């Protein structure tokens, strides 16, 4: 009997010790000290191979680091453990969800649920997280299963934390905010919940000071909580790109905070990759190139490093190197891991490598097939992530300056498909601007086939005028574009647009006009005057008279005025 008592006590002590070790690993995972957590869990597996949850937690870290094969290896080992083996079925179900095999995942979840005891809750939390963190997330399923957890334990802080994540995925931010707040109130050691309150505030893009205050409040509780420094870095980076007048000040703070985050996590390959992702966000491409080379020293086969080499090479002027690295990356990586920015840089590198200049300094395309493929890559990037089109303004302007007006118009047109485009005014204007100059440079025969593009340009200028009713150049180019359409309806629109240009510019007063504006007024008076000569002789005389005041030597204006006054 004494032996049995002693054995029972030993098992109790073992369970408590393992729980403590597992909690330590969980804290490391939450603090994003993944290498630390992996080392801890591997040590636990070696010393306590019968504890299934350790395998699951280790596999889950590998999933976070997008190393699915390694995750599956540990889940499959763990499902045969004597204790808590069912957690590994949740991990394997997560992989099923990643692979789109929903029925297999649900079968595994049901097997776990059927074996759960009355007070078991944590399994539901991890099932919910699997739905949230899957490559193909299902937030509705996550919400439903996390509510089951809360039915069993209404004070489970981790369930509320995960519920908040599911609500964020569903864009139900008010509900998410309440869930995170409840999680932290229930257990103020759950700093991740408080962190997410700041993240929601940060992502409004209008409350950066409030978000920063939230993250600093976390550091007042635990000055070594690394994720808060990462969020501070990302907040200052976003603020820098929103308030460009303080870009240098804020981006320096962002980089400093991220370095602090790195110091508090680790300098493993995965941490360096997170750092590289941030350097892309911060647009520090010199540092990105240095980081990518350090990563190559650590791991010469990981294809993701090629992504950073491509991005940095392009931004640092090595276009051929960028193209080579990106093509190699795409050839090696799982297609499901490709992101919009990969296709954007693939397209940009192709563009740069196929544009040259002739003896007269004009831009020429050296390989039309590659150039066309580049445009398709840039379109594909926008299809994958419409938000990336906010960066297309700079790409289009570069093409425009190279006098590649047709391709520039395509880039701007893709950008204007984004309903939340932050450059809507300029992208629409340059879309029309590019189409106009592309049309002017076409042969007479090709111009006849270009009516559809002129109509796109006209529509873009209508949008510009909606955004800024006094944009004089929008009216000027709208008039020119309609003149080229050469239809009765278009001539009516031409005259209206010239009238508006005249109204806006004339209001400045003759002594305030630039030489360009005087020249454009002569154009407006002359071309609109020619139209009014047919339908409204008095207005035509008025316009030709004003044109002659500005350009007394203009023979066309003189002759038309004489003809109308006979």
UniProtKB/TrEMBL annotation:
Keyword Amino-acid biosynthesis: no
Assigned keywords, A-Z: Repeat, Signal, TPR repeat
Keyword NAD among UniProt keywords: no
InterPro entries: TPR-like_helical_dom_sf (IPR011990), TPR_rpt (IPR019734), Ycf3 (IPR050498)
Signal peptide coordinates: 1-19
Start-end of each TPR repeat: 157-190, 522-554
PROSITE patterns: TPR
Protein name: Tetratricopeptide repeat protein
């Amino acid at each position: 009997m004494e032996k049995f008592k002693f054995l029972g006590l030993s098992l109790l002590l073992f369970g408590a010790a393992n729980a403590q070790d597992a909690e330590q690993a969980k804290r490391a995972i939450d603090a994003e000290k993944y290498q630390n957590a992996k080392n801890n869990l591997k040590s636990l597996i070696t010393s306590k191979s019968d504890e299934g949850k350790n395998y699951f937690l280790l596999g889950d870290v590998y999933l976070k680091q997008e190393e699915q094969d390694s995750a599956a290896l540990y889940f499959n080992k763990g499902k045969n453990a004597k204790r808590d083996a069912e957690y590994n079925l949740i991990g394997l179900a997560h992989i099923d969800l990643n692979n789109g095999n929903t029925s297999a995942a649900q079968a595994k979840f049901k097997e776990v649920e059927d074996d759960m005891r009355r007070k078991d809750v944590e399994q539901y939390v991890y099932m919910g997280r699997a739905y949230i963190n899957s490559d193909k997330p299902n937030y509705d399923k996550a919400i439903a299963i996390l509510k089951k957890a809360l039915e069993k334990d209404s004070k489970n802080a981790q369930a509320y934390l995960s519920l908040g994540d599911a609500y964020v995925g569903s864009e139900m931010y008010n509900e998410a905010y309440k869930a995170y707040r409840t999680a932290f109130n229930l257990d103020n050691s759950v700093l991740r919940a408080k962190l997410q309150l700041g993240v929601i505030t940060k992502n409004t893009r209008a409350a950066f000071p409030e978000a920063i205050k939230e993250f600093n409040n976390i550091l007042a509780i635990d000055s070594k909580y690394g994720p808060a420094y990462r969020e501070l870095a990302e907040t200052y980076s976003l603020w820098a790109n929103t308030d460009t007048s303080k870009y240098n000040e804020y981006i320096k703070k962002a980089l400093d905070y991220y370095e602090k985050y790195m110091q508090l996590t680790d300098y493993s390959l995965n941490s360096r990759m997170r750092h590289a992702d941030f350097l892309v966000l911060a647009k520090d491409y010199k540092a990105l190139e240095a980081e990518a080379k350090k990563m190559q020293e650590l791991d010469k086969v990981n294809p993701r490093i090629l992504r950073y080499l491509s991005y940095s090479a392009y931004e640092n002027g090595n276009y051929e190197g960028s193209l080579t690295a990106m093509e190699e990356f795409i050839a090696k990586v799982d297609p499901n891991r490709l992101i919009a920015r990969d296709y954007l840089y693939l397209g940009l590198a192709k563009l740069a490598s196929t544009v040259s200049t002739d003896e007269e300094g004009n831009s020429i395309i050296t390989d039309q097939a590659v150039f066309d493929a580049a445009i398709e890559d840039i379109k594909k990037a926008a299809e994958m992530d419409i938000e990336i089109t906010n960066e297309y303004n700079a790409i289009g302007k570069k093409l425009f300056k190279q006098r590649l007006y047709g391709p520039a118009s395509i880039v701007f047109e893709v950008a204007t498909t984004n309903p939340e485009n932050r450059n809507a005014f300029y992208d629409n204007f340059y879309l029309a601007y590019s189409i106009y100059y592309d049309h002017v440079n076409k042969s007479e025969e090709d111009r006849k086939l270009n009516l559809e593009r002129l109509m796109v340009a006209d529509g873009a200028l209508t949008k510009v005028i909606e955004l800024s009713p006094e944009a004089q150049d929008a009216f000027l180019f709208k008039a020119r574009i309609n003149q080229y359409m050469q239809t009765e309806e278009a001539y009516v629109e031409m005259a209206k647009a010239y009238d508006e240009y005249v109204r806006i510019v004339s209001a400045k007063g003759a002594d305030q006009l630039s030489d360009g504006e005087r020249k454009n007024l002569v154009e407006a008076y002359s071309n609109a005057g020619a139209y009014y000569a047919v339908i409204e002789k008095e207005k035509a005389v008025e316009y030709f008279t004003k044109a002659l005041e500005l350009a007394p030597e203009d023979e066309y204006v003189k002759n038309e005025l004489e003809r109308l006054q006979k």
